[in-house]
Specification:
The structure holds 2 protein chains of 2 kinds. By secondary structure, chain A is mostly helical. In chain B, the strands form 2 sheets. Chain B has a 6-stranded mixed beta sheet, sandwiched between helices. Chain B has a 4-stranded antiparallel beta sheet with strand order 2-1-4-5, with helices on one face. Classes of the chains: A mainly alpha, B alpha/beta.
Chain lengths: ~260, ~300
């Protein structure tokens, strides 16, 4: 009984380790093929359009909604202390440092990540990747690497747009609806938000999230079982693994970037 | 006529696509030497298989489902790697771990996949142009001419601008065929080229395989269940059974005249014979829970 349990645990541990090993090798392989993708940048541009442009609507709509809600919640909290003039500053820091990169990454995993996994998985199921290999075309250079680079480029752009539209949403609620002073809203933001420390670190975060989310989505698609249920399972795993990775990575990056006051 | 008989057909004295004579070192283009393969360690698909494929000939590989015909093509293309034994292409042992060798050799191969494997995000034209754009370095005007020529050969020049979602299954197979021959390869592998085709398309496809082989001097391997079509177009036929066992091989006439019960059953499509239709199972009485009268009597 105990021996069986130990054997089961050992087998499970080996499976997990094997998965990590395969994922690490896959990631290294992707990096090796990035130069090939950069040499044919038109393929990358097509992916930026497919991944980034088509995610724009959900990112902008979510950013605006988050800006609205954030401004209201902050106002209710700040009005107690008579500090409503700080609304713009707080909303801005929250968005550019945290919510912008993190929420964009979570939405990206749900919208673009699943789409990438399903696309690669179905290409595998339909033997398109094997056909490419048989035509002496390496699918890692032709299919995976351009999507990887496209995802990495798209994510920071989407995160910046998310934060920008969120700030505009907060301005709409704070200034136009609640009636706060517009000059205060913008000037405090201008004087207290540091481009490199706050905006820059936010962009670095979203860049890191772009690498993680895109690599996870491609790995899940490439390693999927070539069956309808295999593809369905892989897309679900993409969302779960990407989201958990983003949240864990966000904690680590925040601790590294903002540990000094 | 039994296993591993080398084919003694002379190589054709044709010219390769670069205007140079094809290599005439020997008659054999592909050789499998004691190959064993399984997708899982517990399930062997091909067991100690040895075969040779003659250069410039149409060889049909027939056999029941699960006999390893498609796997054989995948081994030759380097998509799968033999766990034992070796696969040799034009005198060079294929090493599936050596990507640069694989890419080099695959430029000399074309493969028609069972379900076409067309790129669904591209048009018909772009699918056929894909290998040319990737490898040939030809101008776009030249690519256009070649693509239209290949599409004309399969009767689909008029469908060049259609998207893959707009074409039927039979058309997909013909487009895939046009793509497979786009670079005029030395070896063309056809995986079930007749499946799902109507009678007219089937006849056209069979003629096309034969004509292409004659016109380009390529070696063709046809994996199929369609005995009449394969017998009509092949120079040599190999009949495979489960585990990659070679039941028989020879010319179509030899196989049709064979007295071997297994060969006769397969080529004539007879339901009874050494090849069982039913997967091994318990008896019907056991599955339906019906007591055996004799056993009941004995118990009483």
């Amino acid at each position: 009984m105990i021996t069986d349990a130990l054997a089961g645990l050992g087998a499970h541990s080996l499976r997990v380790l094997r998965t990590f090993g395969r994922a690490a090798l896959f990631f290294a392989d992707l990096l090796v093929h990035v130069p090939a993708a950069l040499r044919r940048f038109s393929l990358v541009v097509r992916q930026i359009h497919a991944i980034g442009n088509r995610s724009l609507l959900i990112i902008l709509a979510s950013g605006l909604a988050v800006g609205f809600v954030l401004a209201l919640q902050m106002y209710y909290a700040l009005v107690t202390y008579g500090a409503t003039e700080s609304l713009g500053l707080i909303v801005n820091l929250t968005l550019v440092r945290e919510l912008g990169p993190v929420v964009t990454a979570l939405l990206f995993a749900g919208r673009a990540g699943t789409s990438l996994t399903a696309e690669i998985g179905l290409m595998k199921a339909g033997e398109q990747l094997s056909a490419m290999e048989m035509m002496a075309v390496d699918p890692r250079s032709r299919v995976l690497a351009p999507r990887f680079v496209g995802g990495i480029i798209s994510m920071p752009l989407l995160a910046v747009l998310f934060s920008a539209i969120g700030i505009l949403g907060a301005w709409f609620v704070g200034v136009l609806l609640i009636g706060l002073d517009s000059g205060n809203f913008w000037s405090l933001m201008q004087s207290r938000v540091d481009v490199w420390r706050d905006v820059g670190n936010g962009v670095v975060k979203s860049f890191a999230f772009g690498i993680v989310c895109t690599a996870v989505a491609l790995y899940q698609g490439y390693e999927t079982q070539a069956t309808p249920e295999g593809v369905a399972y892989a897309t679900t795993r993409t969302v779960v693994v990407s989201s958990l990775s983003v949240l864990a990575l966000d904690f680590m990056l925040t601790a590294l970037m903002f540990s000094r006051p | 006529m039994r296993e591993s008989a080398a084919q003694k057909t002379p190589a054709p004295g044709r010219y390769g696509r670069h205007g140079l004579p094809r290599r005439l070192k020997h008659d054999t283009l592909i050789e499998l030497d004691h190959v064993t393969f399984g997708y899982e360690p517990s399930r062997t698909i091909l067991d100690d298989l040895s075969l040779r494929f003659a250069r410039g000939k149409v060889t049909a590989i027939l056999g029941g489902s699960g006999s390893g015909k498609t796997t054989l093509l995948r081994l030759i293309g380097g998509i799968a790697r033999a766990s034992k034994g070796s696969v040799t292409f034009d005198g060079e042992i294929i090493d599936a771990r050596d990507r640069s060798q694989l890419l080099r050799l695959r430029r000399r191969m074309g493969m028609l996949f069972q379900f076409g494997a067309l790129f669904t995000d591209l048009t018909v034209f772009d699918n056929v142009a894909f290998p040319l754009r990737e490898h040939s370095g030809l101008s776009e005007a030249m690519v256009r001419d070649i693509v239209l020529m290949k599409l004309h050969a399969v009767g689909l020049r008029g469908a060049a601008d259609l998207r893959i979602a707009e074409v039927s299954g039979g058309m997909s197979r013909r487009i895939a065929l046009a793509r497979a021959i786009a670079l005029d390869p030395d070896l063309i592998m056809y995986d079930e080229p007749f499946a799902g085709l109507d009678l007219i398309s089937m006849g056209v496809a069979a003629n096309l395989i034969r004509t292409l082989n004659g016109a380009t001097g390529a070696t063709s391997l046809v994996v199929s269940h369609d005995v009449p079509q394969c017998m009509a177009i092949s120079d040599h036929v190999i009949l495979m059974a489960t585990g990659g066992r070679i039941v028989a091989q020879g010319t179509p006439a030899e196989l049709m005249a064979s007295a071997d019960p297994e060969t006769r059953q397969f080529v004539r499509g007879e339901p009874d014979g050494p090849i069982k239709f039913h997967y091994p199972a318990r008896t019907l009485a056991e599955d339906y829970g019906l007591a055996e009268p004799a056993a009941e009597d004995a118990a009483a």
